[in-house]
Amino acid sequence: VDGERHDFIVVGGGSAGCVVASRLSEINDWKVLLLEAGGEEPPQADVPAFIPLNWETRFDWQYQTEPEDGYCGGKSCTWNAGKVLGGGSILNGMIYNRGNARCYDKWKELGNDGWGFEDVLPYFKKSENNRDPSRAANTNYHAVGGLLNVQRFSYQDKNVQLLMDAFQELGYKDVDINGGTQTGTTLLQFTQKDGRRMSTNRAFIAPFRNKRKNLKVVTNVRVTKVLIEPNSKTAYGVEYASERHRHVTGKAYVNKEVIVSSGALKSPHVLMLSGIGPRSTLSSAGIDVIMDLPVGKNLQDHVTCVGPQLKVEGKQQTLSSNQNIIRHFREYVRNHKGPFSAPGSLQVSAYIKSRYADPAIDFPDIQYFLPSQAVFNTSTGQIRLNTPFCEYNRIYFQPSVMLEKSIGYITIRNKDPFLQPVIVPNYFKNIEDLNVIIDACNFVAKNLSNTKVLKDAGVYLDTRPLPDCAHLEFGTDDYWACLGRNYTETLHHFSGTCKMGPDSDPEAVLDPQLRVRGVKHLRVVDASIIPTLGNSNTNAPVIMIAEKASDMIKEAWQ
Ligand SMILES: Cc1cc2nc3c(=O)[nH]c(=O)nc-3n(C[C@H](O)[C@H](O)[C@H](O)COP(=O)(O)OP(=O)(O)OC[C@H]3O[C@@H](n4cnc5c(N)ncnc54)[C@H](O)[C@@H]3O)c2cc1C
Fold first, then answer.
1. For residues 535 and 366, is the Cβ–Cβ distance under 8 A?
2. Is 312 marked within a binding site?
3. Is the predicted pLDDT of residue 386 greater than 90, yes or no?
4. Atom of ligand 1 nearest to the CA of 540
5. Could you give the residue range(s) of every CATH 3.30.560.10 domain in the chain?
6. 84: annotated binding-site residue?
7. Per-residue model confidence as pLDDT tens digits over 177-189
8. Is residue 540 in contact with ligand 1, taking CB distance under 6 Å?
9. The predicted structure's pLDDT at residue 500
10. Which cofactors is this protein said to need (predicted)?
11. Best substitution site from 398, 542, 544 to test ligand 1's pocket, by max atoms within 8 Å of Cβ?
12. Which residue of 169, 243, 365, 510 pairs with 451 in a disulfide if CB–CB is 3.0 to 4.6 A?
């Protein structure tokens, strides 16, 4: 790669970068180079029952937040993020969720022309190959024929329908959350194909990688700097280092643009190392300032915690003997079917409203995610680690704050490109976020766990307090707040750190065409561009952003 010249260099092959590199290389005359710091997609990422298997491995950046009072028990929280071709789409829960139309209309209201829901819907549909006929039939919202397979899992255990029935007993209808109604319960759709993960690498890069001569993909290479001519402020290439042999460095050049798609935690890092960021931060790190911009501010996420747990015992538990686990695994290897082909109770989700949501409109601010757990010593609550999601006797509700009001920031420690950035999420700085957690926990403990369907099935609330909150009475608001503060979790929806906005917005790093303000031939395309985080998971929105950005870039250069 050293010394090579391409039309476009895409920095980071994650959810967004794979889409951008794929779409730009559709133009035969354009040479596209995709540089990814991580390695190739590993086969174990396929298995839906083993979603967390690659977390905290070499496929994960394993960021640590700064320890702060008030969340994560006063310690660091680990923020997982994909360091692999496919990025977050390799580590993620595969949930396909676009978010409320109002979230995108807000982007437009903020002055981002072309980003209202009606504008972005065609780009969601462009990628989509919806394989569930009942969903696909709603052609206002869904499409078939795109590169990204979206479908439900065909394997559902006995608790999946039970959980949906419980929500329905309380009046929450079974809805298509990507089809115009969010409030309700849903059997989620996933970015998967017939029981195997469909990452953006698999959907957008693999089919073309060795076929398009104009697309070059290089892994295990970390971009350490975007090269910018200081007088004209024009990006002309990148500097990189080998991940394995960091002293091996090189440069590659562009005829047209550098597109930074390194994710919301690394794109600001790359920009700052390149001289784009807050003047005071860059100066104290000894970096020459090319452009003084508020890079790294506006860090947004969806905070959640280990919430109320349901005891799923007796006939409802799904634990099997070792012999059966091996049989299920063999079945999966043979034909991608059986319990390993699905993530257990995580297939069910629901949107409800906290005290802050407008009861009159369909704009919920709480979403439940329902991961399962295997507790093998029920007196101590000891958890069986690395158990596949399909093997469980507990379901825990993640009471997720989907319209979070607290905003954090990310910055550099110094100019060493290999040092992890400083991450301060500021969870619960706005106390309303903690109240949303309380409302979400109360709903499960007081309403959902008392439904007839759950009681008839022998599924009950686990009223054993978690150790760090055992000094408080279980089920009180103080107890739930304690869970929020001490058992804090992230949904890994980091975004907003290179926010787009109109000229009038002093916080905007990018214009609505995603060009870095004041710098030519440089764009950011990934979760960092999001001005205000919507009320959904972020993979589908990021893929939409990348589809739209690719068209903008094509329009600009064709
Ligand atoms: C554990 C987890 C679970 C999640 N679950 C869901 C879910 O179920 N549904 C959902 O919709 N969303 C989910 N998300 C969120 C979603 O996957 C992310 O928002 C999305 O993948 C972000 O895409 P991105 O392109 O912005 O960044 P990424 O996908 O993180 O891509 C950035 C890429 O750039 C590379 N990179 C970084 N720095 C450099 C550099 N200097 N040089 C070269 N390459 C670099 C990285 O290695 C990475 O591959 C989850 C995320 C995680 C981590």
1. no
2. no
3. no
4. 11
5. 153-187+302-409+428-490
6. yes
7. 999 999 999 999 9
8. yes
9. 98
10. FAD
11. 542
12. 169
Determine which residue's CA is closest to atom 13 belonging to ligand 1: 92
Superfamily grouping for domain 1-41+84-148+198-300+494-558: FAD/NAD(P)-binding domain (3.50.50.60)
Nearest-CA residue for atom 27 of ligand 1: 263
DSSP state at residue 146: S
Asked if residue 127 lies in contact with residue 106, where contact means CB atoms within 8 angstroms, the answer is: no
CATH ID of 153-187+302-409+428-490, from 3.50.50.60, 3.90.930.60, 3.30.560.10, 3.40.50.1110 = 3.30.560.10
Report CA(482)–ligand 1 centroid distance (Å): 29
> Rounded mean pLDDT of the chain?
97
Residue 509 has pLDDT above 80, yes or no: yes
- CB of 35 within 6 A of ligand 1: the answer is yes
Amino acid symbol at 25: S
Return the pLDDT at 491: 98
Residue nearest to atom 21 of ligand 1 (CA): 88
> How many whole angstroms from 189 Cα to the centroid of ligand 1?
19
Q: How far is the CA of 89 from the centre of ligand 1 (A)?
A: 6
Pocket test for ligand 1, best of 492, 495, 498, 528 (most atoms within 8 A of CB): 492
Return d(Cα 540, Cα 104) in angstroms, integer.
13
SS3 state at 421: coil
What pLDDT does residue 375 have? 83
Question: Could you tell me if the CB of 353 is within 6 A of ligand 1?
Answer: no
Query: In which band, very low, low, confident or very high, does the pLDDT at 475 lie, cut at 50, 70 and 90?
Result: very high
pLDDT tens for each residue of 428-456: 999 999 999 999 999 999 999 999 999 99
Question: pLDDT category, 64, cuts 50, 70, 90?
Answer: very high
Residue 255 has pLDDT above 90, yes or no: yes
H/E element, 101? helix 101-109
- Is the Cβ–Cβ distance between 483 and 307 less than 8 Å? yes
Q: What single letter denotes the amino acid at residue 218?
A: V
Q: Which amino acid is at 448?
A: L
Which residue minimizes the CA distance to atom 45 of ligand 1?
12
Tell me how far apart the 2 most distant CA atoms of the chain are, in Å.
Answer: 73
493 is catalytic: yes
Burial 193-230 (b: 16+ CB within 10 A, else e): bebbbbbbbbbbbbebbeebebbbbebbbbbbbbbbee
